[in-house]
Design brief:
The structure is a single chain. The protein is α/β, with parallel strands linked by helices. Helix content is 57%, strand content 13%. The longest helix has 24 residues.
Length: 180
């Protein structure tokens, strides 16, 4: 059994994912961690995901991400957090079929505030108005996350992560029971 946690950048996937894994009794992993390691090996130096995206380019980055996703999903009893764009490719959506997909949903204004305070992501490099482009991406991606999700957990600003993890746990357990 595998649980895949999706959502936009800064939704809280890497915070709620480990809490959910602990409650289920599964191991937690993060595709961004795997990507960082793979990109660092390929580039011959330690890079973060933002640097990997910039230096590898979108095509190579997404190719590596898809390969790492397939590798991770070969494991059992795993809660895997994905990068914000990872599940949007048709091949990735096929890979997560059969997994319980948990979408961490955050109100748009909260996401924009979180991202602005953390710094614009690499895919907005060169944008004259990064916030406008971010909002365009949100309008495009958020409905697609909902289409893929088996479970939706709201994570607005001000909510305790434990609340979202508890809600996700309850819904994931119900999803697992329905598959037996």
């Amino acid at each position: 059994m595998k649980v895949v946690v999706i959502g936009f950048k800064s939704a809280g996937k890497s915070t709620l994912g480990p809490l959910l894994a602990e409650r289920i009794g599964f191991r937690f992993d993060d595709l961004d961690w795997r990507m960082r390691g793979a990109a660092s090996r390929e580039l011959g130096e330690d890079v973060d995901v933002r640097q990997a995206f910039r230096r590898l380019g979108v095509e190579r980055f997404r190719e590596m991400e898809a390969n790492l996703l397939a590798e991770a999903l070969s494991e059992e009893n795993l809660v895997l957090s994905l990068g914000g764009g990872a599940v949007l490719a048709p091949a990735a959506r096929e890979l997560v079929e059969g997994c319980c997909v948990v979408y961490i949903r955050v109100p748009e204004e909260d996401l924009v505030r979180r991202i602005r305070s953390g710094g614009w992501p690499a895919y907005l490099d060169g944008e004259a108005d990064p916030e406008a482009e971010l909002r365009r991406l949100l309008a495009e991606r958020l409905p697609r996350y909902e289409e893929v999700a088996d479970v939706v957990v709201d994570n607005p600003d001000g909510e305790k992560p434990s609340r979202g993890a508890n809600l996700a746990f309850e819904e994931v357990v119900e999803w697992m029971k329905s598959r037996k």
